[in-house]
């Protein structure tokens, strides 16, 4: 039986031919890839990505690579070095002007190389090094002027070279091409070669089978040597004064086809050409001069060997009775792509052996009378004309016709009588006409018709029994531009039908009976209301189609209503396409009748959610397409068990956040398309981003081109460019670190407080003193007081009673006392530092209470810092009471001062207070010179 591809099931066909290998299924930055031919050849596509260089993440075992339509300027030595298994490489439509030597050297398995539409001007010696297995090379549409003599030397297996649209001029330019030992086809169309002569070729023998020299303005074609023993076809253009010189017919003994784009050639030269081709069978004459066309055709048809004549692409408006009279022995004739308006009734009458007639793309208004009586005709192409009416006798006596093409005309009425004599007809194509009515079509008895195509017409109704007699029909396409009525039994009798496409007004009235072998059903629903009753809504319409494998329902009316029994009886169904069918999630029982379903498309249905229970009856699902809906979440996938699902399309939805754990329920997933969704670029998608980058099983198609829609600050940015580093915080570990640090800090703080608090306090005040001292040095201010008296408030009576009268009253020293001379409102620490550094000396009146006082401790510490910093005698220690050394131990700095310096002791003065105050006077009178070792003070520490 004759079968044909069904484009309406393109998704199914893609899934049947496209296979994915988990070892390579991951996301590429600038490319996508898939497997063809039962997962043998992985194909990588990088077209139209504005690439300026070859991507570095192409899988190493890719066998096909398409880099066309980019901005690549040069192929470097390392660009393709890792792709040793590559068999097909396309780098056309780039800006390549040069390649490194040996740029293809590692592509030992390459079979096909396409470099069309680049900027190459010359082919260098080592350009094709390593391509010993290359079979096809295309360098079309470059600017090649020069080919190195050694350029093609490595191409020992090449059979086809395309150099169309370049700037080659001389035979010497193309001699290197002919040096390839296995060259079968050479295409040199649209160059600047003016002469082709075998004398310019230095070798003896060639395996060339097809030579193209179209549009070179060729003036001479000369073969004077037997160098093309296997040449089978020549395609060339001639010019005024063209010369054909073939010394012996034996030099073209294998030539069976001559394709001439004739502009102007004499009949004499044309005869010479035909006489030098003793085996010629197929002759093509295009773009002939109007004045010569009839004479040239007469010469051509008088050649008894020519059985096929192609006259396409000329300016014929009409053909008279004598135009083709001498072509009686032709079996094939093509008059396509002319301007034919008519053929005279007897213009083809002499062609009793004609089997193939092509009249498409002309201006015929009716079926030419000339075809009547062509009893040997098997193929007739009348497509793309202006035929409006078919008469009952239009195909009279075409008893051998098996294929009739009438598509793309203006036929409005189809009468049964038109085809009643075409008993051998197998294919009838009436696609894209204006047929609105079938008149008595049930009378047609085309017992051998296998394909009937009425796609794109304006049928109004199909009546009962219209196709009853088409018992061999395998494919019937009745998809209309508008919907139409179908009587309940209109499709009965199609016992062999395998593929059916219809556009019914009410699909619920159709009886799909009498079609036991139907495998493919396509319903295009365009009516306002497609169900007429609640009873019809709840009944199954496909229950008799037990062998149906592929079902497509496309609805352009949102009033379509479905029931849980929609697919009842379709136990063999493998693919279901529902286009604008479900306005809500399908009922959970919808697919319980289709356990073998492997491919499901629910598209353009405005679904916002799906019930996970829908998928329970179809665990063997391989391909799922939910594109062009309004799904906001993929959580339903986490609740289903689809262990075999490999191909998932979710493009053009409203998905913004994806939990990567969803895909854990899809262990076999190898292809995922999420294009055109409004992704949020924040930490809610961090897991998905990480999964896309790291998983080695699922290819997320065009993932590196996904853009952010939210938040506004990230709008337009790439989803995979979002920095997820800050999102990966281990809060458990963070808590552990925090608590550990807190415990350690507590222990350290306790230790420091207990053992080092005085040292730290002392260090702090030394720092304050240092800062103050630095400021004072910069200012260079004179001392305001002779001495600052540092004492405890409990010792204040002694200071007023004993010290002030003696030092201020009797000796006249200027003393600074905190209760009297500190500036009110000023920080106390600042008052202390101003007093110490504003006095020449500091007198510390030490008692046990003094040592326990915090402020007194700060004063003596700051004074001691000044002592060590300035290295001057600025500190006077005056003890009011005897304090043992062990009591001063907690105040380690005090003990060190007492050990290193002499001091005054009031208790030891006893009744000799005058001597005591004299010693104080002597200490105060000591100048600012550096300290000496002389002992001016007396006490136990001397």
Automatic annotation (TrEMBL):
**Transmembrane feature ranges:** 728-748
> What topology does the record note for this protein and the membrane?
Single-pass type I membrane protein
The record places domain TIR at 783-924
List, alphabetically, the GO terms of the cellular component aspect: plasma membrane
Q: Which InterPro entries match?
A: Cys-rich_flank_reg_C (IPR000483), Leu-rich_rpt (IPR001611), Leu-rich_rpt_typical-subtyp (IPR003591), LRR_dom_sf (IPR032675), TIR_dom (IPR000157), Toll_tir_struct_dom_sf (IPR035897)
Note the PROSITE patterns from the entry: LRR, TIR
Source superkingdom: Eukaryota
Q: Give yes or no: UniProt keyword Glycoprotein.
A: yes
Where found?
Membrane
Annotated signal peptide: 1-25
**What is any one GO biological process for this UniProt entry?**
signal transduction
Any one GO MF annotation of this record: signaling receptor activity
Primary localization: membrane
* Family note: Belongs to the Toll-like receptor family.
The protein's name in its UniProt record: Toll-like receptor 13
């Amino acid at each position: 039986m004759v079968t044909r591809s069904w484009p309406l099931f393109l998704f199914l066909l893609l899934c049947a031919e496209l296979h994915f290998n988990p070892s390579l299924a991951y996301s590429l930055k600038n490319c996508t890839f898939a497997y063809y031919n039962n997962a043998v050849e992985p194909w990588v596509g990088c077209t139209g990505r504005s690439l300026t260089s070859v991507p570095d993440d192409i899988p190493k075992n890719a066998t096909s690579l398409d880099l066309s339509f980019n901005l690549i300027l040069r192929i470097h030595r390392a660009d393709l070095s890792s792709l040793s298994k590559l068999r097909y490489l396309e780098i056309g439509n780039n800006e390549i002007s040069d390649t490194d030597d040996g740029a293809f050297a590692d592509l030992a398995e390459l079979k096909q190389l396409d470099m069309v539409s680049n900027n190459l001007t010359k082919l260098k010696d080592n350009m094709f090094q390593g391509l010993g297995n290359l079979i096809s090379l295309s360098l079309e549409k470059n600017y090649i002027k020069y080919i190195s003599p050694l350029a093609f030397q490595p191409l020992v297996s090449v059979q086809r070279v395309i150099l169309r649209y370049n700037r080659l001029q001389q035979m010497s330019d193309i001699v290197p091409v002919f040096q390839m030992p296995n060259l079968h086809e050479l295409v040199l169309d649209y160059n600047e070669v003016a002469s082709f002569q075998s004398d310019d070729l230095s070798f003896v023998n060639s395996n060339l089978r097809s030579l193209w020299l179209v549009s070179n303005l060729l003036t001479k074609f000369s073969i004077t040597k037997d160098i093309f023993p296997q040449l089978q076809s020549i395609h060339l253009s001639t010019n005024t004064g063209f010369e054909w010189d073939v010394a012996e017919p034996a030099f073209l003994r294998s030539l069976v086809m001559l394709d001439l784009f004739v502009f102007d050639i004499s009949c004499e030269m044309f005869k010479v050409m035909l006489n030098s081709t003793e085996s010629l069978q197929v002759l093509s004459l295009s773009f002939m001069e109007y004045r010569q066309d009839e004479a040239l055709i007469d010469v051509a048809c008088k050649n008894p060997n020519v059985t096929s004549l192609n006259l396409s692409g000329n300016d014929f408006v009409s053909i008279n009775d004598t135009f083709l009279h001498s072509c009686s022995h032709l079996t094939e004739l093509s008059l396509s792509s002319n301007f034919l308006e008519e053929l005279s009734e007897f213009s083809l009458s002499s062609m009793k052996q004609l089997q193939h007639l092509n009249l498409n793309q002309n201006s015929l208004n009716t079926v030419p009378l000339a075809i009547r009586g062509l009893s040997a005709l098997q193929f007739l192409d009348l497509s793309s004309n202006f035929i409006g009416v078919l008469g009952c006798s239009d195909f009279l006596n075409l008893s051998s016709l098996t294929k009739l093409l009438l598509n793309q005309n203006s036929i409005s009425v189809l009468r049964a009588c038109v085809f009643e004599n075409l008993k051998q007809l197998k294919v009838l194509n009436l696609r894209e006409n204006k047929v609105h009515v079938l008149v008595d079509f049930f009378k047609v008895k085309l017992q051998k018709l296998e394909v009937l195509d009425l796609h794109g017409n304006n049928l109004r109704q199909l009546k009962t029994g219209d196709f009853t007699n088409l018992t061999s029909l395998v494919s019937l396409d009745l998809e209309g531009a508008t919907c139409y009525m179908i009587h309940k039994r209109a499709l009965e009798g199609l016992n062999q039908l395998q593929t059916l496409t219809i556009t019914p007004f009410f699909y619920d009235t159709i009886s799909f009976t009498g079609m036991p072998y139907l495998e493919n059903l396509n319903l295009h629903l365009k009516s306002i209301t497609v169900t007429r009753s609640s009873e019809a809504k709840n009944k199954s319409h496909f229950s008799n189609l037990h062998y149906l494998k592929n079902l497509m329902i496309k609805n352009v009316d949102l009033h379509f209503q479905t029931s849980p029994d929609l697919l009842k009886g379709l136990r063999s169904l493998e693919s279901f396409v529902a286009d604008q069918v479900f306005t809500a999630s399908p009922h959970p029982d919808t697919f319980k009748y289709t356990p073998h379903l492997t491919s499901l498309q629910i598209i353009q249905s405005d679904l916002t959610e799906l019930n996970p229970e829908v998928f329970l009856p179809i665990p063997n699902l391989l391909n799922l397409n939910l594109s062009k809906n309004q799904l906001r979440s993929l959580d339903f996938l986490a609740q289903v068990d689809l262990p075999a699902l490999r191909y998932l399309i979710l493009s053009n939805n409203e998905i913004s956040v994806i939990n990567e754990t969803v895909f854990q329920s899809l262990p076999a997933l190898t292809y995922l398309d999420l294009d055109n969704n409004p992704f949020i670029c924040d930490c809610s998608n961090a897991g998905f981003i990480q999964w896309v980058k790291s998983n080695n099983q699922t290819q997320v198609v065009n993932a590196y081109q996904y853009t952010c829609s939210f938040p506004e600050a990230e709008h337009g940015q790439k989803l995979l460019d979002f920095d997820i580093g800050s999102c990966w915080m281990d809060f458990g570990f963070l808590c552990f670190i925090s608590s550990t640090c807190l415990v350690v800090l507590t222990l350290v703080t306790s230790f420091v407080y207990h053992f080092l608090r005085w040292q730290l306090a002392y260090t702090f005040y030394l720092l304050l003193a240092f800062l103050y001292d630095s400021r004072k040095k910069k200012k260079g201010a004179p001392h305001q007081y002779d001495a600052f008296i540092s004492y405890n408030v409990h010792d204040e009576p002694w200071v007023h009673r004993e010290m002030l009268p003696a030092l201020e009253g009797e000796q006249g020293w200027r003393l600074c006392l905190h209760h009297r001379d500190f500036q009110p409102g000023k920080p106390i620490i600042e008052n202390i530092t101003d007093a110490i550094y504003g006095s020449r000396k500091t007198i510390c009146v030490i008692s046990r209470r003094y040592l326990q006082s915090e402020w007194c401790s700060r004063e003596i510490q700051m004074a001691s810092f000044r002592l060590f910093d300035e290295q001057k005698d600025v500190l006077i220690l005056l003890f009011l009471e005897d304090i043992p050394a062990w009591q001063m131990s907690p105040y380690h700095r005090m003990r060190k001062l007492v050990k290193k310096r002499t001091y005054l002791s009031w208790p030891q003065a006893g009744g000799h207070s005058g001597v005591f105050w004299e010693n104080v006077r002597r200490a105060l009178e000591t100048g600012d010179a550096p300290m000496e070792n002389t002992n001016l003070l007396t006490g136990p520490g001397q």
